[in-house]
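worker-3 :: picked Acyl-CoA thioesterase 11
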Amino acid sequence: VMTERTRSRIQAAEMSFLHRVAGYNKASMFIFYILESSRLCKAHPTLRTIDMFHFRGPSHIGDRLVLKAIVNNSFKHSMEVGVCAEAYQGREPLRHINSAFMTFEVLDNESKPCTLPRIRPEPVDGKRRYVEAIARKKIRLDRKYIISCKQPQVSLSVPWDPSNQMYLSYNNVSALKLMDTRNNWVLTSEKNKVRLYTLEENHMLCFKVEMYVSVPAEQSFHLLSDLTRRKEWDRHYEQCEVIIQVDEEDTLYRVVTPSVSKGGKGKDFILLASRRKPCDSRDPYLIALRSVTLPTHPPTEDYTRGEVQCAGFTIREESDSVTKLTYYNQATPGVLPYISTDIAGLSSSFYCTFSACSRFLETKEFSEPF
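worker-3 :: tokens ->
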């Protein structure tokens, strides 16, 4: 058993160097993780996962960066290392610009995980980080289960028929409103003012994408309300057809998406889309989506039936010509494969998709409101 002080003063490890290029280099943080984790295990560790890479602010040309790393906890075959990146120039105060967590393991000559030494946390802050690392490990395991399972154990879709249409539509919109009111979102990635956030609580993983477009809110609402046009900007929408036009506010669609793996089956979704205009100037436009089942459209052998629990857009008018557009999705096994690399910070495909959405909104016209 090792104390935090014994493990080579990892908690006090600092490295400062002149950052000569604009932007922050992830490779620097990765190398620093390697150095700090190797002191505990007395071997060269192997990166297993990257978790919660938070971009809090930019670094600038001429900044000096201070990287602080510490092993938060060690488990039987893995350890979690946290790093905080701060920047400063001259005598100005330190600016917290990045933080992240990485999980490492040590492999033997047969590529099997080695047993790692345990640590005994120091009081107060050390104990807090020790406990939080356990919680993050549980979240990672839960997320791994969600991603790996082929089908959820309990169906997320509910049967639709005219008798329960009003009830389903109300719940559809209410679920999106509830997600919109949450205030503990964590910024995961940002590129050219398109921001990706995640929220993990109560065994639930949600994500949202936020951006501003130079299009009136009402026009954005009508263009995005028609899901048959989404394939014009979203490469995940391969096909979209209207099944039932229930009324002016609710429509049933069948959406087909391509496979995320080479040679795999595509997915299809049966979605209820519920549209709502603002009741007053403080409310946003809403486009809520959720999966339903229809006896006329059962699963087929050609496609894997996917499910959406809660997703959609909130569209807020910032001015006559500027709109804040936010897309929400409560991740499910049918959805996560399309966004998992973005959530892990390994790609920025979300940016390409929503930049295409912005161009679509700014160049297209709508004829008649729904």
